[in-house]
């Protein structure tokens, strides 16, 4: 108790620094994965992608990031066991932040496709098991998180498959695909707006003091969907039928229409990513702040201070601006096998899965969800070639990241414990 | 910071682009064969030699493309079409250029001259064979364009249309072959017998060019049937 009182401000400052460092890493690296498919399909330019990412990552973090943050903050460790030694939680969370931020740096330098979520969860579990004993961990919660890492790519894959099949059915197999695209694409735009708004309103807004009922949320989401659709129709009007001589079904015009749609899905993806991944940086930070603010009472049901999510969102934006644009450029130009229609199916499926998960508070990996979605489109025979060996690399990075994050956080935990007592 | 991103790596290089490159080389060879025929007709053997060398180079490049496609089609690729169909397609495709090279080779080697009355019909016959190759190229190119729709109903309609055209051209070549053969038969007694044997061979081989081009179309159909 006295340690907290003595060093409280230092702990908060450290937590803010480490949290910002972590958020910077997320922005510098992870965002590129989220935006890569949109840039790669040439639907939006890199400049547009960065602008969209800045605005919607931030909005996602601020509006819908609360649920996942609270899972990271208090869903993994049993707070009751820490009543007598609240400083241990502070050390642990600081160690977790530093550990995963450093692991993220190292892995990125080496080019390993690690997940920020995995490293944070691994780090928290690591220090908890080593420093507090295995009993301190909510193993059922961990089980849920781990199983969601399997189910989320699967779910995203299924949604992407169905979406792409529906595009095939409704548009590509139509006798006049261009007219069909003009007719049906606004429907997909509505879907984008509706799903994102619905999940956000239902789950995200309570910490802003705007608790809405199911009916109100539904109505509001329908409205938002309609607004998105209207904007889309206006943008779509500008696209004329361009006939290429060798393009009998004017598929290039169809892809142009999907390009408009892609802009909305890119926004949705950035929003989804911000809502889920900001928690990786902000969750531990929030835990530290809450313990210090309540003079060491760990279990207190503290509200999430508003500035914490803003700090996290800001960190992501800074990371994106200072470094992420380079990564987006690399990823975006590397992916040439995506057309807007396929990119749309993959990205919307991933975004939907991620916001759903954010709504229920599950921390999932955006990267892996997107990979699942891309595979789903591939299964619908939409991709010309996918490299399955990369899947192996990703699975290995899953297996490595958990223990690596855990080991690093254990080291830092005992360092901090030695320093402060 | 990122050296190899999992995303850019996830998208493998499409095998259809090299397939198109390969058929492009083949059509180039076919066009050269027409020029070669004219040079041979005018007994301009130095130009004919140069053209044959260019055909041979083109065939060689096509061969290398084929090998590269075969070697670079790793098992770790997830493709929208069956791997074995693709391999089959490329070897069928590759045989067109081989035959074109053979025709040019034997005509140059024997410095063959057609009887004047036959030049016109054989030229037309050869033009049809070359048109068949072009038609094959077009079917493949459109298939590549339409891949992005994930092979819907339209794609099979398009392909059927292209293949019907391919079949029509091949049939035309067959008819022209019959006419040319009949003509040669009536001239047989006036020509040196060894020349006649090789003339029959040339006529056969030109027919094989269009045959093989049509076979690529059938392979495409098989490719789409799954």
What is the strand tally of chain B?
A: 1
Number of structural units classed as domains of chain B = 1
Q: pLDDT below 50 for ≥5 consecutive residues: which ranges of chain A? A: none
The main pleated sheet of chain B reads as:
none
Structural class by helix and strand composition of chain B: mainly alpha
- Counted by DSSP, the helix tally of chain A is 13
The profile of the biggest β sheet of chain A is: none
Helix content, binned percent of chain B: over 70%
Which fold does the CATH topology of chain B refer to?
A: Methane Monooxygenase Hydroxylase, Chain G, domain 1
Distance between the termini of chain B: 43 Å
InterPro entries (chain B): DUF47, PhoU-like_sf, Put_Phosphate_transp_reg
Pfam family, one (chain B): PhoU_div
Family (chain B): Belongs to the UPF0111 family.
Protein name (chain B): TIGR00153 family protein
Q: Would you give an account of this structure?
A:
Chain B: InterPro entries: DUF47, PhoU-like_sf, Put_Phosphate_transp_reg. Chain B: It holds the Pfam family PhoU_div. Chain B: Belongs to the UPF0111 family. Chain B: It comes from Kushneria phosphatilytica. Chain B: This is TIGR00153 family protein. The complex is a heterodimer of chains A (421) and B (226). Chain A has 421 residues and is mostly helical. Chain A has one domain. Chain A has 13 helices and one strand. In chain A, helix 6 (139-172) runs parallel beside helix 12. The longest helix of chain A is centred in the middle third of the chain and has 43 residues, at 251-293. Chain A is elongated, with a radius of gyration of 22 Å. Chain A starts with a helix and ends with a helix. The mean pLDDT of chain A is 83. With 226 residues, chain B is an all-alpha fold. Chain B has one domain (14-225): Methane Monooxygenase Hydroxylase, Chain G, domain 1 (Up-down Bundle), CATH 1.20.58.220. In chain B, 81% of the residues lie in helices and 1% in strands. Chain B has seven helices and one strand; from the N terminus they run H-H-H-E-H-H-H-H. In chain B, helix 2 packs antiparallel against helix 5 (116-146), helix 5 packs antiparallel against helix 6 (153-187) and helix 5 (116-146) packs parallel to helix 7 (193-224). The longest helix of chain B is centred in the C-terminal third of the chain and has 35 residues, at 153-187. Chain B starts with 5 loop residues before the first helix and ends with a helix. The chains are: A mainly alpha (421), B mainly alpha (226). At the A-B interface, helix 1, helix 4, helix 6, helix 10 and helix 12 of A face helix 1, strand 1, helix 5 and helix 6 of B. Strand 1 of chain A pairs antiparallel with strand 1 (77-78) of chain B.
């Amino acid at each position: 108790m006295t340690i907290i009182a003595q060093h409280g401000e230092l702990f908060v400052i450290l937590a803010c620094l480490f949290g910002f460092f972590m958020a910077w890493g997320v922005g510098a690296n992870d965002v590129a994965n989220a935006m890569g498919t949109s840039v790669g399909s040439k639907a939006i330019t890199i400049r547009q992608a960065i602008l969209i990412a800045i605005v919607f990552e931030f909005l996602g973090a601020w509006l819908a990031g609360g649920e996942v943050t609270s899972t990271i903050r208090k869903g993994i460790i049993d707070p009751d066991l820490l009543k007598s030694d609240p400083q241990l939680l502070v050390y642990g969370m600081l160690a977790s932040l530093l550990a995963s931020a450093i692991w993220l740096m190292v892995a990125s330098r080496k080019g390993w496709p690690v997940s920020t979520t995995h490293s944070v969860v691994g780090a928290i579990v690591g220090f908890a098991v080593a420093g507090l004993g295995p009993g301190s961990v909510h193993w059922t919660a961990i089980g849920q998180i781990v199983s969601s890492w399997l189910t989320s790519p699967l779910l995203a894959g299924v949604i992407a498959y169905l979406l792409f099949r529906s595009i095939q059915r409704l548009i590509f197999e139509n006798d006049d695909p261009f007219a069909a695209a003009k007719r049906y694409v606004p429907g997909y735009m509505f879907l984008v707006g509706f799903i994102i708004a619905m999940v956000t309103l239902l789950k995200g807004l309570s910490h802003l003091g705007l608790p809405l009922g199911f009916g109100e949320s539904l109505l509001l989401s329908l409205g938002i969907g309609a607004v998105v659709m209207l904007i889309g129709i206006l943008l779509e009007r500008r696209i004329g039928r361009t006939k290429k001589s060798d393009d009998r079904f004017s598929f290039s015009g169809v892809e142009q229409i999907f390009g408009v749609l892609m802009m909305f899905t890119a926004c949705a993806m950035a929003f989804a990513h911000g809502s889920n991944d900001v928690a990786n940086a902000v969750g531990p930070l929030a835990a530290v702040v809450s313990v210090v603010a309540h003079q060491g009472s760990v279990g207190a049901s503290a509200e999430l201070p508003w500035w914490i999510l803003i700090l996290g969102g800001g960190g992501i934006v800074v990371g994106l601006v200072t470094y992420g644009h380079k990564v987006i450029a690399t990823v975006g130009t590397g992916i040439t096998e995506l057309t807007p229609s396929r990119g749309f199916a993959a990205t919307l499926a991933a975004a939907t899965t991620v916001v759903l998960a954010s709504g229920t508070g599950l921390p999932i990996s955006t990267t892996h969800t997107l990979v699942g979605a891309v595979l789903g489109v591939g299964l619908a025979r939409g991709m010309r070639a996918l490299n399955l060996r990369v899947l192996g690399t990703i699975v290995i990075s899953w297996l490595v990241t958990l223990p690596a994050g855990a080991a690093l956080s254990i080291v830092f935990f005992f360092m901090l414990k030695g320093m402060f007592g | 910071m990122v050296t190899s991103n999992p995303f850019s790596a996830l998208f493998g290089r499409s095998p259809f682009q090299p397939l198109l490159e390969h058929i492009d080389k083949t059509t180039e060879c076919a066009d050269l064969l027409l020029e070669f025929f004219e040079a041979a007709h005018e007994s301009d053997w130095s130009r004919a030699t140069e053209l044959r060398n260019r055909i041979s180079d083109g065939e060689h490049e096509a061969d290398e493309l084929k090998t590269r496609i075969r070697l670079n089609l790793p098992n770790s690729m997830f493709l929208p079409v069956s791997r074995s169909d693709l391999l089959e397609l490329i070897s069928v495709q590759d045989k067109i250029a081989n035959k074109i090279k053979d025709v040019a080779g034997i005509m140059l080697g024997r410095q063959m001259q057609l009887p004047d009355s036959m030049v016109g019909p054989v030229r037309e016959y050869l033009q049809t064979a070359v048109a068949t190759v072009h038609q094959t190229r077009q079917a493949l190119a459109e298939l590549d364009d339409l891949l992005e729709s994930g092979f819907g109903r339209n794609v099979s309609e398009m392909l059927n249309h292209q293949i019907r055209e391919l079949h029509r051209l091949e049939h035309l070549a067959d008819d022209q072959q019959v006419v040319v053969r009949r003509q040669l038969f009536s001239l047989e007694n006036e020509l040196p017998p060894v020349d006649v044997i090789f003339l029959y061979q040339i006529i056969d081989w030109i027919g094989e060019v269009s045959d093989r081009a049509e076979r690529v179309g059938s392979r495409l159909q098989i490719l789409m049937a799954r």
